[in-house]
Amino acid sequence: MEQKEFDLITFGETMLRLSPPVNELINKSNTFTKHAGGAELNVASGVSLLGLRTAIITRLPDNQLGTFIKNRIRSSSVSDDYIIFDKSPEARVGVYYYENGAYPRKPTVVYDRKHSSITKIKPEEIPEDIYSKTRMFYTSGITLALSEATRTLAIDMIKKFKAAGAQIAFDVNYRANLWDEETARSTIKEILPYLDILFISEESCRRMFKKSGTLQDMHREFCHDYPNIQLIASSEREVISPKVHSFTSTVYLKRLDKFFHEDPYKDIDVVDRIGSGDAYCAGVLFGLLKFDDAQTAVEFGNATCATKNTIFGDLPVSDYDEIKSIIDAHKSKGKQSEMNR
């Protein structure tokens, strides 16, 4: 693939997350810790930490909260060249509150993200030369759902990046609190002919797209219906309790008509699951961009997801060396040291 200024550019909302201390309730706590996050930032951050060059297109209020998020973007080695600052009096950052679960109490999320600055983004705020600057473009169903402005712009971006030669990766990432299934289905069907890489859960295959059969059957059907799709990835998480999960995934490579899989990471010690699905996408995309190998993509995707579950906050923090050592340990059948020394 031709070398470009960036390996990956993403487009989406960057948010402020507020969390009470671990195991405390939102409606009881007097203190909250703030984190930066958002699906597309999480993905860009994960890929950059593994060693590739990434950027994010987003829109932030031109105030202290926007500065906090901008600094987190920079500290994650993600380029801030395409942050748009909203100077209007109505400028605001999307906020959500996250409360950890402890069995039998489930985790809780409360959103306060309506009318955030990105929902009013304008096409003329995007520089036209950006479309030739990356090998791959990524966005998600969350961005399509935020507002008519983000939806229209994201679809236009997909078409323009595609025309400029970039691969297009998309995560369905359906959120019922943002839009209804029918609107989501019709909108995503509009962009499916432009996608090269699709992240979709088994539930979304069955419920949103009305497909049936095994997961493998549904992957093949997507690639038959949309011949441009070259790879489909579906994560497989078993929630034993809020703090104990197991995780693996299945990747289908159309070119070889082959499925790639590995043994699950069992009994993951879940500290914070937010952003772990995005970390999976980041690992898979890194494996494809760096090694052009589906099995390597599965291994990096599974390892980055499993590891992110053990880290507080939305953003991943693990670099290539740590993830590679986790992959090697996962494959090893012998006795392992219980400590990094």
What can you tell me about this protein's structure?
With 341 residues, the chain is α/β, with parallel strands linked by helices. Helix content is 34%, strand content 23%. The chain is built from ten helices and 15 strands. It has helices at residues 39-49, 64-75, 141-146, 148-163, 181-191, 202-207, 215-225, 276-291, 294-308, 320-331, and strands at 8-11, 15-19, 33-37, 54-61, 78-79, 83-86, 95-99, 108-112, 136-140, 167-171, 197-199, 231-241, 244-253, 258-260, 265-269. The strands form two sheets. Strands 1, 4, 5, 6, 9, 10, 11, 12, 13, 14 and 15 form an eleven-stranded mixed β-sheet that branches. Strands 3-2-7-8 form a four-stranded mixed β-sheet. The radius of gyration is 19 Å and the shape is globular.
What's the assembly state of these chains?
single chain
Report the portion of residues in β strands.
15-25%
Order of helix and strand elements from N to C terminus = EEEHEHEEEEEHHEHEHHEEEEHHH
Largest sheet: 11 strands, mixed
Radius of gyration from CA coordinates: 19 Å
Mean pLDDT: 95
